[in-house]
From TrEMBL:
Keywords: Disulfide bond, Mitochondrion, Oxidoreductase, Protein transport, Redox-active center, Translocation, Transport. Its main location: mitochondrion. This is MIA40 protein. Gene3D superfamilies: 1.10.287.2900. The gene is Chchd4. Residues 62-98 form the CHCH domain. InterPro entries: CHCH (IPR010625), CHCHD4 (IPR039289). It is found in: Mitochondrion intermembrane space. GO terms for molecular function: protein-disulfide reductase activity. It comes from the Eukaryota. The keyword Oxidoreductase applies. The keyword Protein biosynthesis does not apply.
Amino acid sequence: VSYVVGKDRIIFATKEDHETPSSAELVADDPDDPYEEQGLILPNGDINWNCPCLGGMASGPCGEQFKSAFSCFHYSTEEIKGSDCVDQFRAMQECMQKYPDLYPQEDENEEKSSKDLEATSVDASAAKEEKGSS
């Protein structure tokens, strides 16, 4: 039995499900994978776009903008590193704003929450004052 709530699928397992041996096959990691365990920067100084540390940012609808901005910053030789990359970061930000479900804007959500709380407390204060004055 399963059902979907929002983006999540909830699956209920029965006792019988647990008693049945798993048919999942584990695939061993390829010891010859040049990107395995390399980290963000490869030995030759290139960026490892397959690094799990990037959280998938290098792929997806804004992957090219991310790569452009990150590459610019990585290879920047400016005194203030990355100060020559404003256009690339702006393009990345503009792209991400088109996909709020994929790239949540945490700062905006926090600001919105605090504004909502302020509005609620102001409304509550005003309501108390009106009751008190009658």
